[in-house]
Amino acid sequence: MRRLLQSIIHNRKLYDRPQDEWVCGRAAEGCPCVFGPDRKGECRATSQCLPAKKGDRWVCTRAISLGGPCKHGPQPDGACGCPVPPCTPQRSLRGHRRQLTWFAVSAAAGLVVLALWGWARTAWSSPGPVTAPHAMSAQRCADCHVETGHIMLTSAERAQRTQDHNQLCLKCHDLGAHGRLAHGVTAAQLLELGKKRTSGEAPPPPLVQQVAHPLASGHPSELACATCHQEHHGREANIQHLTDQQCQVCHQAPFASFTSGHPEFTDYPSTRRTRLQFDHVAHWQKHFADPRLASTAPTSCAHCHEPAPDGRKMLVKDFEQTCAQCHAGQIEGEGRASAKGLVFLRLPEVDLVALEAAGEPVGEWPDFCEGEITPFMLWMLEGDATAQKALADLGAAKLADLSSATPAQKKAAARLVWSVKGLLADLITQGQQVMMRRLDPYAGVRGSTRHTGNFSADSLQAAQQVWLPRLLTEVAAYRHGDKPAPRRVRPRGAVAQAGAPGPVAAPKAAESDDLLAEPAPAKAPDKDDLLADEPAAVKPAPVTGKAPAPSAATTLEYDDAEARVAEGGWYRRDNTYTLYYRPSGHADEFLTAWLETSASDTMPAARAIYAELASPKAPGVCMKCHTTDRVGNTSQVNWLTSRPQPQNRPFTTFKHAPHFSLMGVQGCSTCHVMDLKADYASAFGDSRDSTTFHSSFAPLTKNSCVACHQPTMAGASCQQCHNYHTGELKLLHLQAAEVKSAPARK
Predict the structure, then answer these.
(1) Handedness of CA 554, 557, 558, 560 (dihedral sign)
(2) By C-alpha distance, which of 654, 712, 545, 590 is closest to 271?
(3) Are residues 77 and 105 in the same domain?
(4) Taking CA atoms, which of 22, 39, 57, 213 is between 20 and 30 Å from 33?
(5) Does 671 fall in a domain?
(6) Domain region containing 378
């Protein structure tokens, strides 16, 4: 049954007014007046009731709670017969609450005004001082915080806010392409790595353990930077330091400590083959054990290795300190049975009889040439359109044997011979620019001076005067469209000597400024001409005046041309019509430039050049130790060993320098143990895959580190050995501002 909370009959109970701000002063005595105070808190009671008129009489209406109708009743004029003196009204509970509410609102509004516009507004809003690296942003909240005009309720809005905040951090901190993701890799990659683990496999490293449920369930994979790096904890706070508990929030395969539960290492620290082919086992077990090398063999790892400036990576010392004692002479060609120089230019063998019978004269050419066009000549010929077409038309036919060649192939052979003669003429008349210019279509990049090897056009001109004296005249006539002159036979090994008939003179001497002018007849080689072969004795010139006549001895004899460039340079052999380049020792710029250029090119000449230079028997023997790696669609020759890469942050980090004082008499072998059964050499040869290898050393085990890395000793926190932000972090490079010149005055 429905009941009223309070009776509304006037004479039974006084009606409470909880909404009023004032209550009667007699309420505390249990006898409040009927009227109650007004809105201003003034007493309105003058009597105990308000008599009511019934007919011609006035009736008392005093409430039953006050004793009911009085005995005297109302006065004749209708006034109450029981007057009441006024009371002092009091504020009600509602009034006190309203008063307190207005005070709180006013105080809050005042604080907001002070916080936003007061002189100490920054002190009110700052949650605390920032660290020293962020001190410049202490007064600029917008450097690290994004203002939003509404409360974000959806996950998409919260994810966008996280991205906006992270973007502010990345304005100063470059963390790589995926710096905002866990460990620098995408969530899909982390999940895929976690799925690869099966019950039968060894536990993977902490990076690939099963990740937290929020990431696996499709939630936003981008974590806020402030999740781990929390500011406003003081100027000296280290916001980079993380606890193991923070790492275990995501890594759902917890373990007690590094010593108890941490996964075993797998193939650490080797991640690729060495950049230099150096077999530690073979050298220590075989070469260094040779009594003949006892005085020069290293006695410890420190003989060849030294720590990097930051103390992390161990570097290999330079060539002079490590390898020169055993290999410098080998590089310079000591004990080499064949030529110590590299064949650069050569007059190839040509079937002159077949060409003359086909009506394709090639002018002057030696009858007794041997060998084919060198790869370097082929490279320069491929830079000429005419030679390219001649090579294509020649096909599989050989210049040395054109007996079974078609007429078209014989014409192509003749054009190719003229292209060779034109190449020699251009090198003589224009010099190194020809080599630089013809490198462009070959390698796609402009050649450098390293590719020329300080080539001298004058030196080649000296060779031309002996090999093809009429070369410049014939090439000039051929390019002019004139019929080639009859071929002149040059006997094998013929050289111009003093007293011997010189080459046939040109029909008419060219003007002095003609670049194709035929040179004067060859003279006896000067003693400083390093490119001259050993000539016969030269008779001294007649002596005039009172100078004494020479003795019976004719003149000084020349040393071998190859021996005269022992420090590197160009020399020739006239009996084989060949121009050689002898390397200048280790890191010869000519050889390194050509290896770098030809390693990545797929043209036939490039492959031939690389094959010749990469041969273990090539002059300089560069590729006996150095390797070539395939990087994407190109190849890279490794001239240096591994070097510190500050921009590359691996997941696992190690610092060698602090561990030196802990090693005993075993030295580096305390941790690095050679694997005597490893097939180290099989990873090299023609292979350019650096990820397939066999290390000379056995992988490190966790026990090597557990002995010291315990919580009560050297420490065993996750962050001590692992980086969270991994990958390639590009360093900031600032560009100089452009200085605008002042406008000219009118």
Answers:
(1) positive
(2) 654
(3) no
(4) 57
(5) yes
(6) 342-491+513-535+559-608
Task: Determine the pLDDT at residue 737.
Answer: 63
C-alpha distances out from residue 487 to 73, 490, 502, 532, Å: 163, 9, 17, 25
Domain finish residue from 248, 265, 290: 248
Q: How far apart are CA 483 and CA 460, in angstroms?
A: 26
Q: Which residue has the tokens 């086992």?
A: 281
Give residue-wise pLDDT tens across range 42-94.
888 778 788 888 888 888 888 776 778 888 888 888 888 888 888 888 888 88
CA 708 – CA 727 distance, rounded (Å): 29
Question: Which band of pLDDT confidence, cut at 50, 70 and 90, is reported for residue 503?
Answer: very low
Q: How far apart are the C-alpha atoms of 293 and 320, rounded to whole Å?
A: 16
- Are 299 and 381 found together in one domain? no
Mean pLDDT of the chain: 80
CA dihedral 212, 215, 216, 220 (to 10 degrees): 160
Residues β-bridged to residue 637: 628
CA distance 497 to 525: 8
pLDDT for 670-718, tens place per residue? Answer: 889 999 999 999 999 889 999 999 999 999 999 889 888 888 888 888 8
The pLDDT score that the predictor gives to residue 104 is 94
Q: Are residue 598 and residue 469 in the same domain, yes or no?
A: yes
Helix axes 407-430, 432-443, angle to 10 degrees: 130
Burial status of residue 246 (CB atoms within 10 A of its CB: 0-12, 13-18, 19 or more): middle
204 and 351, same domain (yes or no): no
Tally of structural domains, the chain: 5
Task: Give 597-636 pLDDT, tens digit per residue.
Answer: 899 888 888 899 999 999 988 999 999 999 999 998 899 9
Q: What is the pLDDT at residue 52?
A: 87
Residues 371 and 471 grouped into a single domain: yes
pLDDT (tens digit per residue) in 566-580: 999 999 999 999 999
**Residue where a domain stops, chosen among 664, 679, 700:** 700
Beta strand 90-91 pairing with 22-23? antiparallel
- As to burial, measured by CB atoms within 10 angstroms (0-12 exposed, 13-18 middle, 19+ buried), residue 738 is exposed
Claim to verify: residue 23 and residue 49 sit in the same structural domain? yes
Helices 432-443 and 589-599, axial angle in degrees (round to 10): 30
Report the alpha-carbon distance of residue 687 to residue 693 in Å, rounded.
10
Examine residue 620 and state whether it is found in any structural domain, yes or no: no
Length of the chain: 746
For the cut 80, the answer to whether the pLDDT of residue 445 exceeds it is no
Give yes or no: residues 305 and 400 share one domain: no
> What average pLDDT does the segment 96-105 reach?
91
Task: Write out the two tokens for 50.
Answer: 């308000």
Tally of helices (H runs) and strands (E runs) in the chain: 19, 13
Asked if residue 583 is part of any domain, the answer here is: yes
**Inside any domain, residue 269:** no
